[in-house]
Design a protein that fits this description.
alpha/beta, Alpha/beta knot, five-stranded parallel beta sheet, 5 helices, globular
Length: 159
């Protein structure tokens, strides 16, 4: 299975980079893992709704360039469906059984994901109703994907 994670903006904190490196290493025995980081748009503290949508549109166009036609796209969206770790593992395994072996996860920027990207997504996944920094979400996503593969393989994991 090939997994691509597309994020808006770069990781700046070393502790996040260290965690990402650790999960990249752990996941290497289960899947091919690629990261695409697209440039974030400069966004002032206060913006109109129209300005926010404009920022998301620009970031969305960059995200869409990283998505291939055959990719099964999972957008991390606060309004998406929530799953337990076991349900996520079952979902990923089910996609593999269906021949969908190129998964692309999308983590939006500080304002979220554009309508165009959400429309392209095959599935919307929510980790919580809370909002998290996209840098932290990348680590959480990697941990859950790693946990999913451990569950799929029947290997021990912490509940």
């Amino acid at each position: 299975m090939k997994i691509t994670i597309i994020t808006v903006g770069k990781i700046k904190e070393k502790y996040f980079e260290d965690a990402i490196s650790e999960y990249r290493k752990r996941l290497s025995k289960y899947c091919s893992l690629d990261f695409i980081e697209v440039q974030d748009e400069k966004a002032p503290e206060s913006m109109s709704r129209k300005e926010e949508e404009n920022v998301k549109e620009k970031e969305g166009k960059r995200i869409l360039k990283g998505i291939k036609e055959k990719d099964y796209v999972i957008a991390l969206d606060i309004k998406g469906e929530q799953k337990t770790s076991e349900e996520l593992a079952e979902f990923i395994e089910g996609l593999a059984v269906q021949g969908k072996s190129d998964l692309t996860f999308v983590i939006g920027g500080s304002l979220g994901i554009s309508k165009e990207v959400l429309d392209r997504a095959d599935y919307r996944l929510s980790f919580s109703k809370m909002t998290f920094p996209h840098q932290l979400m990348k680590v959480v996503l990697l941990e859950q994907v790693y946990r999913s593969f451990r569950i799929i393989k029947g290997e021990p994991y912490h509940k």
